[in-house]
């Protein structure tokens, strides 16, 4: 606009077009949502003309990166709620030709992402430091993880519970491998013991304390030190040692909420792309995905666009 009297010019922007931008917030939001639904940057660029809108793939990539950082900041500034059960699990992220470790922290009861940290699960010192810090920040009463050794000793034993699904899966696989080996070598007693152990692992409802049948099996093989007998001895003692550490939560004794968050916010999208270009994009992506799922299934894009 130009004043006819003094010649001063100024810009009047319609609602939804931010200062310094030539595209509306709605157009930017469409590009971000389409990309997060699984389209590539080039596919989003090809779709926008169908709405009589235009935007290059580099522009869309920049919009997604900015929205991710805004979602991450919005998540961090939200009021921190107390967490009863903290689920922790790690995963890998392909990034510019190399892999980077990422650690996810999840509120098991509410099925909500708490935070994501750039920590490799094999870095024991870093894992324990980050888990202890997040536990203290959210006031978690219980830590729930898989059997990775990095999570041991962070909190007292009664507050650290193992995921029932992970525990059963790993022990059941070893048990059936030993059963097959014993059956092939005609060791009837060993095969029968492996079969009994497998049934104990699958028993429902699961006994909260070590069953007497398991104790008898442990005593039967406790002096075995060679070959397949030694493998059964090791497995039985490990099962007995960890039996009471497994979660007995009547509502959800697993760490599946953490696995679902990792899958929904990270894994599904990362499998359809070559890799993230930077660590900042790796960390921002889960927050953006969590934000778009919304609170009560409603996501207000005006907060991040």
Short synopsis of the structure:
The protein has 305 residues and is α/β, with parallel strands linked by helices.
Q: Nearest-angstrom radius of gyration?
A: 26 Å
CATH arch. level architecture of the domain at 85-162 and 252-278: 2-Layer Sandwich
Q: Quick one: biggest sheet?
A: 5 strands, mixed
Provide the structure class.
alpha/beta
By CATH, the superfamily of the domain at 85-162 and 252-278 comes out as Ribonuclease H-like superfamily/Ribonuclease H
Name the strands of the widest sheet in spatial order.
Answer: 3-2-1-4-5
Oligomeric status of the shown chains?
single chain
Topology, number of strands = 5
Give the low-pLDDT segments: none
Helix content: 40-55%
Mean pLDDT: 90
Gross geometry: elongated
Please work out how many helical segments DSSP would assign: 10
Q: Beta-strand level of the residues, as a percent range?
A: 5-15%
Question: How are helices and strands ordered from N to C?
Answer: HHHEEEHEEHHHHHH
End-to-end distance: 27 Å
The CATH class name of the domain at 85-162 and 252-278 reads: Alpha Beta
- The fold-level CATH name of the domain at 85-162 and 252-278 is Nucleotidyltransferase, domain 5
